[in-house]
Amino acid sequence: MQGIDNNKRLTILGSETRLKILCSPSILIQRGVSKKMSESVVELTDANFDTEALKADKPVLVDFWAPWCGPCRMVGPIIEELAGSYAGKVKVGKLNTDNNPIVASKYGIRSIPTILLLKNGEVVGNLMGAVPKNEFEKMIDQHLN
User: Fold this and answer.
1) What are the sequence ranges of the domains in the chain?
2) CA atoms of 102 and 125, how far apart (whole Å)
């Protein structure tokens, strides 16, 4: 039997053994259970996509992802790094496809991670899957003024 009490303790009861594991938010984040975005990455949603991405005054890198997706978790740190290295030049955002199906459907997202580069509201570049950081940089650099 398993359960989580209000003190964030996971209790697993076995036939002869009782084991308690303290689950802190940082451990859950490290394990990919929960992910908090950095301040330089915008959380994109169906509700804010037009204003945050389509009407942006600079190119926008959009990571279409989901928390259960292993390759998405591999790409996540690269997206964070890009947000830092292109700060002021490119807006970087993440859109959870499970929670925001309208935008994902509009762009025909069938596989994640899919990363789109938007400029003036139009798709000018895309990458699919867990690709190396230099592929992202090459795509972004092509479209910077």
Assistant:
1) 1-34, 41-142
2) 20
